[in-house]
């Protein structure tokens, strides 16, 4: 545990917290707390097996982790789109910058909008979306491109795309410049 505390002291400004792994025989969510070391490699600061995925349980994990790490809170936390996790972070660590994992966002988007985007008149929409998300060089470019994409592909009424747009500042890289 001493090594993890030293690593967290050095590299704990950013952590990723993900509970999408439920592969043990009891189907308990496994929650690793992961960071990136000075060589760009993943580093595990801690982990937990959770009884449930409520805001109270997540807050307990964060509170316990911070206590074990001598009171140091991270500066940035990246998670999936779990509402209970978001509540726990805002309740316990309101000053921490909370971002959504782009991999999870894009995976969920493909699951929820894959058939919508694969319709004949929307051919190429997935490529346009990827270019907007990953290659926009300014916020204005992203904003204009998003609106144009919605119009060009007749997608202005898609609820999931509307939700993702409302959360854009939490997952689209161009908003992370500051």
Account of the 3D structure:
By secondary structure, the chain is an alpha/beta fold. Helix content is 47%, strand content 15%. The protein has seven helices and five strands. The protein has helices at 2-11, 55-68, 83-92, 102-117, 125-135, 139-152, 159-166; strands spanning 14-17, 30-36, 42-49, 76-79, 97-100. The chain has a five-stranded mixed β-sheet with strand order 3-2-1-4-5. Strand 4, helix 3 and strand 5 form a beta-alpha-beta unit. The longest helix is centred in the middle third of the chain and has 16 residues, at 102-117.
List keywords for this structure.
single chain; 178 residues; alpha/beta; 15% strand; elongated
Described by strand count, sense and barrel closure, the largest sheet is: 5 strands, mixed
Strand content: 15-25%
Order of helices and strands: HEEEHEHEHHHH
Distance between the termini: 33 Å
Radius of gyration: 18 Å
Are there runs of 5+ residues with pLDDT below 50, and where? Answer: none
Counting H and I runs of at least 4 residues, what is the number of helices? Answer: 7
Spatially, the strands of the biggest sheet line up as 3-2-1-4-5
Could you say which overall geometry the principal axes of the C-alpha atoms support? elongated
Backbone structural class = alpha/beta
Question: What do the pLDDT scores average to?
Answer: 92
- Helix proportion: 40-55%
Number of strands: 5
Would you kindly provide a brief summary of this structure?
The chain has 178 residues and is an alpha/beta fold. The protein contains 7 helices and 5 strands; from the N terminus they run αβββαβαβαααα. The protein has a 5-stranded mixed β-sheet.
């Amino acid at each position: 545990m001493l090594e993890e505390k030293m690593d967290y002291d050095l590299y704990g400004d950013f952590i990723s917290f993900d509970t999408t792994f439920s592969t043990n025989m009891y189907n308990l969510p496994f929650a690793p707390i992961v960071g990136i070391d000075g060589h760009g490699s993943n580093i595990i600061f801690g982990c937990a097996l959770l009884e449930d995925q409520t805001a109270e349980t997540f807050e307990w994990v964060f509170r316990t982790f911070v206590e074990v790490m001598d009171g140091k809170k991270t500066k940035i936390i990246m998670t999936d789109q779990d509402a209970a996790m978001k509540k726990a972070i805002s309740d316990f660590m309101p000053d921490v910058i909370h971002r959504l994992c782009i991999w999870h966002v894009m995976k969920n988007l493909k699951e929820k909008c894959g058939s919508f985007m694969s319709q004949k008149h929307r051919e190429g929409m997935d490529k346009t979306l990827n270019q907007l998300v990953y290659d926009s060089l300014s916020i204005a470019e992203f904003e204009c491109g998003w609106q144009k994409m919605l119009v060009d592909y007749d997608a202005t009424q898609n609820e999931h795309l509307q939700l993702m747009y409302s959360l854009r500042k939490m997952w689209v890289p161009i908003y992370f410049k500051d």
